Amino acid sequence: DRSVSRGLGDVYKRQIVGCSQNEEIENVGQKAKIDVTTVVKGTTRAAVTSNDNFTAFTINGYTVAVADIASSGLGTAYMYKDYTGKKGSWATTGDDIYWPLDENMEFFAYPTELKANFQAPGTGYPTFTYAIGAVGAQTDLVVAHKSVASVPTGGKLELTFKHILTRINFSYVPENAAYTYTVSNITINKVEGEDAIYTFAADDKGSWSAGSNKNVDYVYPVLKDPVAADGAYALDTQDGSLMLLPQSVASKTISVTYKTEKDGHTYFEGTKVVTLGESAKWDIGKNIRYKLTLPVGAEKVTVDTNVEDINETPESGSAK
Asked: For the whole model, what pTM was predicted?
């Protein structure tokens, strides 16, 4: 086996260098160690992984031609290492690993807690299983993939980690600001969740399988006593976004429970249901905010969306 022979024939070539390496390599063809830097694509707030809270990841590296991946898979890992620490001070254990000459390398990096879920099939790109947690236990998820055709300058491998879930938040706009609104519950009804499979891809974005449970209700953690900004009340708490499986949400519904009051009188108290459009979709790495316009009484709730790319703003950090 090509990959096995390369891996076993170079047993002495193990492990990414530590922070102490600061040498200039005059000829990258002479035992250049694989050094690593990382960038976690940045975002704003709420339970999102950033350079400040990203503390562990695992790298699988393979010597394989890109054209062979679809038919022959990746083969045996040339490199398989765990890293712990924070940006600028990553640590690992074991022997040094060196770049092979004139061979393409494929690197896949993911949170270390998922290493038992990572699979390299006989054909195609690798996968891992992931479970969308219950509300209150959901976390952001970032991964990286890089194809390297030749030894980079100084032997440094830079991995850019991208967010691959969809982040969901809500705001409301009162139809009449003279009334007091109290939003007590927002539930996204009957969407896909729980266990799913992520597959890496050549385009670095990858794709998700359908969730194992297609009828999950997610109750949004509503902020009490929100403050108005530009006429809208953001209902998300710090670290309180929903982190959900990317999917089509065409014709799915959102239930909103609220109350309107004025001068000691109640004008509405109950639950209304909003139906999403036929083209509604949660894309990988998107930050979606639903803005609900709530009427005073029995009228229909209207919805608008604001969609941003969670991976839009880079936060750079050296991880040596």
From this structure: 0.84
